[in-house]
Amino acid sequence: MPTARTRTTADAFDQRDPRWANTSAHITGLAVLAVGAGILVCAGVEAAYGDPEAPAMLASAGIVALAGLALWRLTRVPTRVGRAQAFAAVVSVWVGVSVAGAVPYVLTGVLPNPELALFESISGFSGTGSTVLFPIAGNGHGILLFRQLTQWAGGMGMVVLAVAVLRTLGVGGMQLISAEAPGPQVDRLAPRLSETAKRLWTLYLLLTLGATVVLLAAGMGPFDAVAHALSGIATGGFSPHDTSIKHFDSLAVELGVMLVMLVGGANFALMWRAGRHRSLRTLVSDSEFRVYGSVLAGATVVVTGLLVVDDGLPLGTALRWASFNVLSMMTTTGFGTADFVQWTASAQLVLLFLMVSGGMAGSTSGAAKVFRIQVAIQHAAREIRRVHHPRGVFPVRLGETPVPEAVVASILGFLMFYFVLATFGIAALALLGSDLPTAAGSVLSAMGCVGPGLGETGPTSNFLVLGAPERLLLNVFMLLGRLEIIPILATIWVVGGRVGDLRLAWRRRR
């Protein structure tokens, strides 16, 4: 039995333990090194197309890779990772790769302002898709590919990549993946965590290759197909074109992109099992997948009707615009084919709801996720039943599967934090000078990792219309949304406790 002075893997993490810094630095170094390798590949693409930024891209790759290599080699491989250590490491990784990702934008002169470069980098890695790059078209192929690659890397997660490489993490790997994974729980696909991470990345790569083939068949050129496959499977929404998917003006391309977004918003572990069993029944029998499909279909019908009745659009045009943009908003991809800011207010409200709900847990989409909305509704229904049957036992169920009470409590806590922080963010942006639609759309877009907002930050605009203070605040909300709030709040708690200990020690010395 452990005493007060001993520690086990399951024990709570002591915020005074200096190992958290070693763990954070080691895993961050590996992630930053991977970013440097990505920049190097993009530098090669820049040179192959004869674009002028190749030397600057090569210099960026060297700087980022050396920084990552130094962090990785000068620290020890962690063998035990507590929960709070995992939270601190995940936040450290995402801050580190975001700063590293800003380097190519600054050195190439595409975004020489470091504040704008950091915004574009965070938007890329978080899979948000909000942009301050204008014009987009006309920049070098290498920097545009890097922009897409940030979304692809961030979609599956840099920490998941680290776990796939660091075989020695053991039980700590689950803590790390849980802290980064977009959803309330993590499904093991193999007994070893490193093998689970490898399978997720393998599936992710195969789906990206499949998306590229689909987009090529739909009529995109090779560069566009690869670029949109990278950001589509990651549900990120960056495009090498200023008008996004509208640039192609092709129904075949839109249908191909819709298929890619639909897959990106689905649970990857569920798709792995469906592929392993070679049966669509695995998908159809899943309660969350059925709700995911039903909400998409229902919202498409509603928005189509509103566009026909209120805006007077022809049925074919209304259905085409509604189906694409409903799917784009619910999966939080953010690709655009129409300026929905000009639609009727009721249609925009439907899209706003979809921006909050998001896709399935375990997907690359952002926002609250269908799973959490299901559980919250079931919990509310249970409380109503308890009014009439105080002694009744009513477990929350998804399909035939009961949801553990600990998971229900965790989901309710997450939703509370989500909406409280969103309210705070909207108020802050309004105080900084944004009108209410712009403030609400921008904050909910950032927290949901959607991309376009409402008002002045709609799909045909960009975030240059906001000032630097607003963008810096949205940087925080994009990271909060991608890491699903708890890791960042837990890290603040750890750092706050450490600062408190230092202040107490200083007072005692006085």
Tell me what the structure shows:
With 510 residues, this protein is mainly α. Helices cover 66% and strands 1% of the residues. It is built from 20 helices and two strands. Strands 1-2 form a two-stranded antiparallel sheet. Strand 1 and strand 2 form a beta hairpin. The protein starts with 18 loop residues before the first helix and ends with a helix. The relative contact order is 0.10. The N terminus is likely disordered.
Kindly summarize this structure in a few lines.
The protein has 510 residues and is mainly alpha-helical. Helix content is 66%, strand content 1%. The chain has helices at 19-48, 54-73, 83-108, 114-125, 141-156, 158-165, 171-180, 193-218, 222-233, 251-264, 268-277, 281-284, 287-309, 315-330, 345-357, 370-388, 405-431, 436-448, 468-482, 486-509; strands at residues 397-398, 401-402.
Defining key terms:
510 residues, mainly alpha, two-stranded antiparallel sheet, 20 helices, 1% strand, disordered N terminus
